[in-house]
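Students often ask why inverse folding is considered easier than folding. One informal answer: many sequences map to the same fold, so there is more than one right answer. In these notes we will look at a single instance of the problem. The structure comes first.
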């Protein structure tokens, strides 16, 4: 079972990025999936979730700016991030909801400059 995140990078405030998470070893729609992030010196927190039944929810800090989606045929989960802010700087991970049913991947670093 493996989760591989990609798509991070350095972007200016106001810019956009799309993150991808390829799920292997289990079927993507077997689990509720979420994106989490961990900023320097802070705990990992849930950013966006999409359940197998279609329920979607976002952290208040990203509502209206981030969009989660999943392509079960490709076993891939996406996070479209628009209007990025410096406080979005973090390592972004995908995992199940609740987290930890599969091992954490390495994450992908998003750095937003002001």
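Output (designed amino acids):
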């Amino acid at each position: 079972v493996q989760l591989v995140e990609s798509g991070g990078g350095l972007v200016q405030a106001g810019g956009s990025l799309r993150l991808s998470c390829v799920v292997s070893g289990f079927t993507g729609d077997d689990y509720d999936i979420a994106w989490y992030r961990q900023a320097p010196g802070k705990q990992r927190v849930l950013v966006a979730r999409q359940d197998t039944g279609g329920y979607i929810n976002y952290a208040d800090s990203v509502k209206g700016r981030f969009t989660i989606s999943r392509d079960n045929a490709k076993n891939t989960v996406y996070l479209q991030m628009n209007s990025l802010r410096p406080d979005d700087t973090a390592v972004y991970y995908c995992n199940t909801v609740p987290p930890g049913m599969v091992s954490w991947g390495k994450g992908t670093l998003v750095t937003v400059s002001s």
